[in-house]
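Field: COMPLEX_INPUT
Field: COMPONENT_COUNT = two
Field: RESIDUE_TOTAL = 559
Field: MODE = joint
Values follow.
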Amino acid sequence: MLNLLYLLAAVAFILGLKMLSSPRTAVPGNLLAAAGMLVAVVATLLVGGVVDLPIVLAGIAVGALVGALLAAFTPMTAMPEMVALLNGFGGAASALVAGAEMLRVHGVEDESFALVPVIAIAASLLIGAVTFSGSMVAFLRLREWLIGGRATVFPGQHLLNLALFLAALAAAVAFARDPRPGGAVFALVAIALVLGVLLVIPIGGADMPVVICLLNSYSGIAAATTGFVINNNGLIISGSLVGASGIILTNIMCKAMNRSFTNVLFGGFGAAVAAGAGGAKGAAAPVRSGDAEEAAMILEAARSVVIAPGYGMAVAQAQHAVKELADELEKRGVDVKYAIHPVAGRMPGHMNVLLAEANVPYEQLYEMDQINPSFGETDVVLVIGANDVVNPAAKTDPGSPIYGMPVLDVEKARTVMVVKRSLNPGFAGIDNPLYYLPNTIMLFGDARKMAVALAQAVKSL
Amino acid sequence: MDNLVMLLTVFVLAVFVGFEVISKVPPTVHTPLMSGSNAISGITILGAVIAAGAAVSSGMRWLGFAAVVLATVNVVGGFAVTHRMLGMFRGRGRGRKG
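Field: COMPLEX_OUTPUT
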């Protein structure tokens, strides 16, 4: 009976995920998946052998309250942090369930440990703890609490990781030989927690989209392993679905950033950025800068304008002002589109959510592959808060650290306007030759203030 | 052993289903898909409920309770925030909504 209901829930998850992957059916898809979860939980409460209902309901009440508050009040800019936090909670919960199961089998005298559950318990503790501590590091980095956005690297990092992984395996073997709650288990969990931290700290803030995907996948795998621990098909199916989807998204992100998958798995990217790539050449070149009034005149006279937003726009909370500017231009008959690079923002699809929040209709958002061929016929491109994703050096300079990364071909437009605080290189520390092109006008200033000024200037024309 | 093979079968097949279901995803829905699948990974709540509700020792009860709280935050937070996010997506001509 219970397994039939779990099967029903699994079908709901599969259909829900399928529907979630298309904008038109995403809302019912999410509701379907949530309904599946409700069925599975209620079924477990009623026929899962629960005897102490109050403590379970108390836990659900506390968790539901915290979850609902987080969901209701987290700003859209902080969505990556929230997903990282929830990933971490899921991983921790999986590890805790494995720990509880270990105590149960230990507490029942006539039941001896079989090897399979013991291996599953060790794997679940390891993966769950790595997911938890890794997600917490990602959360802190995204919040820029305690640790900054820059990658933390030190010599021998990979060797240390390898040594820790081997130590974790040794602890797991020790636990399998003597499966009782004790030193080996504590050692295993402690090593896994440290390993999770070490796997994520070498990854800088700019590469966070990949990490979030990967941790998402880990949390699914942790749930699936816990399914092996407690012999539960529901956990195995749902966990592996999420594990697989996380890996697919990781792969999409890797392609968008021109990174290899192994590079991500073993960490350490985002740190090997060579200093001074093209820096001296750029500094000597002349830069054309303009002000809001001048820019507004060019924008107003254009037939087509493409806005290329980056995370900087979101940080400055400029998306509403940008939307206002776009509305003003459309009123004057200008065709406005948005060019969305796959890694614009801090997690996959983040920019789409931020623009949706500012009421930009999604028909106006164009993916990189769709819009790249049309830059040649575009009058003005307005780059706001984006840097690496519009850097032509990725196509032309084999010495550039981002060489080979697919970028938006903004430099092909008749005029390129770049809203930026200063000429300082971006987060990744890479100079951008786009700023020195003859058809580029730099608009120096805060993204939000500049967008507001541009909207005002267009209005008063 | 047969049981393990059964579980492994389910596991492997589910991984393939996962790859098939989510092979083509437009970037528009990457973030909601991720928070939605994140909520599904909170399925571990089933194990947590059993651990807390059918505990044989106080240690197991409290581990189970902590797992229930964390997994519920994951499930409820994940589905609710996905719903909120999806409510923001709208096409041209449709009305403004909360």
